[in-house]
Amino acid sequence: MKKVIYLSIFLLFVGVVGYTAQAQTSSKEAGSREKLNVKKLDVTEFFSNENGTFLLRNVKTGKTFVYNQERATTRLTPESTFKIPNALIGLQVKAVRDEYDVKRWDGVKREFDTWNRDHTLGSAMRESAIWYYQEMARDIGEKRMKEWVQKTSYGNEDISGGIDHFWLDNSLKISALEQGNFLEKLYKEELPFDKPVMKTVKRMMIQEEGNHYTLYGKTGTRLSDIGLGWYVGFVKVDNQSYVFVTNIDGSGTKAKNITLDILRKYNLITK
After folding, report:
1. pLDDT per residue as tens digits for the range 29-39
2. CA neighbours within 13 Å on the CB side: how many for 95?
3. DSSP character for 59?
4. pLDDT tens digits for 70-117?
5. 65 in helix, strand or coil?
6. Coil/strand/helix, residue 133
7. What strand order describes the sheet that includes 240-248?
8. 217-257 per-position pLDDT tens digit
9. pLDDT score for 43
10. Which fold does the domain 38-265 belong to in CATH?
11. Which of 27, 80, 160, 241 is catalytic?
12. Catalytic site includes residue 80
């Protein structure tokens, strides 16, 4: 009987210690996030072999960290990060009904196998299927596209490069700082679109969800030479939210990996 009692007490003690250790770990993580000071960030190590820029903004306080200020103010083609405003415009003007609106694959083999099938607005965002958004842009039309690009003050607002490719290594250009401003307004739902439209696009941007965070993002790559890569979005961490923008002389995948490494370093996302 005594052995049973001692065992029970031991197991209870182990359980309490385990719970306390877990609580302390969670508390430390939450504390590090709350105390994060964007002025003290150091991301140099992540760009030692890369030419690029990184921006992180605390949405609540507006405090912004920028690595490589000169590049952050340089306008570059948005590539597939333009799928974010393209989706907003398409939904707003009803070129598509909702995130589940299907477009049939035309049978043309393209760069990636995941593109070679039917897609919805949401799946084409996740797989970055360019053809879907090109077709939607044609349905939106030049007049409405120009109107909404100007309404959102998106970069240089230049869509003269052709309705279905002006954002792809063409006339439309935007800086990392401008991307950050646009994304902050989307997060706050302060862009000139209907609230349900903005909520839908934000939902389509979700890429990861953890116990304490939700990551929203979109990559973009200049496919002609893989010489420009973007990763843009925002991360909600407990009661804080941060907008991020990265671009490099490389692929969108590499820009995303750099971004995730930085966010992990500062416990904004955890494994």
Report:
1. 444 455 677 77
2. 22
3. T
4. 999 999 999 999 999 999 999 999 999 999 999 999 999 998 999 999
5. strand
6. helix
7. 64-67, 52-58, 240-248, 229-237, 213-221, 206-209
8. 999 999 999 999 999 999 999 889 999 999 999 999 999 99
9. 97
10. Beta-lactamase (3.40.710)
11. 80
12. yes
